[in-house]
Amino acid sequence: MRFVQFRFLKDTIKATRIGLQKKSGGIVDLSDALPNCHSMVDALTKLGGNGLIEIARKNLANKETSSSKCQLLAPITSPDKIFCIGLNYKDTCKELGFTPPEEPLVFSKFSSSITGPFDNIDHPDISKEVFWEAELAVVIGKKGKNLDATTAKDCVFGYTVANDITALDWHKKNGGQWLLGKTMDGFCPIGPSILTADKIADPHKLAISCRVNGQIKQTSNTHQLIHGVYGCIAFLSKFCTLLPGDIVLTGTPPGCGGFTNPPQFLKKGDVVECEVEQLGIIRNQIV
What we know:
This protein is an alpha+beta fold. Helix content is 17%, strand content 31%. It contains six helices and 18 strands. The protein has helices spanning 40-58, 90-96, 149-154, 168-172, 179-182, 229-237, and strands at residues 2-8, 17-21, 27-29, 64-65, 70-73, 82-86, 105-109, 114-115, 130-131, 134-140, 156-163, 166-167, 188-196, 207-212, 215-221, 247-249, 271-276, 280-285. The strands form three sheets. Strands 1, 2, 3, 4, 5, 6, 7, 8, 10, 11, 13 and 16 form a twelve-stranded mixed sheet that branches. Strands 15-14-17-18 form a four-stranded antiparallel sheet, with no helix packed on it. Strands 9-12 form a two-stranded antiparallel ribbon. A hairpin with a 5-residue loop joins strand 2 and strand 3 (27-29). The longest helix has 19 residues, at 40-58. The two termini are 33 Å apart. The mean pLDDT is 96.
């Protein structure tokens, strides 16, 4: 199943709705079936991933609305936590000449950095070194603490596409802490949907790529991950309780512009497309 958050274009209230996206592209509105759930985080918290899927199955045959009448939003908004894993691709470490980290290298973004899969992104005036990082993102479906790899797998609700946009100049400033260079407004476009985990046979066998103005900048496969999806989740759960709707960005392959030779940075007017096999494409213009 593909879950989305969306708005009806003619809705003057601009209410966020939860829906299912069908193969046709049409969207089944689940709002009436989820009367007390106002977001995906809310639905996952109240119903759990399995409960939400069960309600969705009962409403699969409901009337579809054409995607042309809807605005797709980020499929998760206002999560409790956004985790990011750095230097997590073997080919990225090779490109940079780094030794692969023995444990996941963890940093974070604020939830205010999340934006929609096709939204414009403002280029911050305070940075001249903004670049792209295509990533596979994991959505947590139930509460978890001190997990092992097996129980971590059970906590995964689904997968989506993310772009861990970075301002390299601020990534290096502020005492070398990464946060400010990672969490500016709009620096975490995700979407276009959440594909439930049961539809992904193995999250470690997915092609991943990024294009800027149609030119390929990144291309790899998640089999290059150093620390796999379940290992990262288990590791994170040792430090804090994972909650429904939490997001884990699993790392980026080689070719992100800040570390190419010479470095390449985004400018106003550029269009960035990030794609993960089976999950779809997010497309954002820098303005």
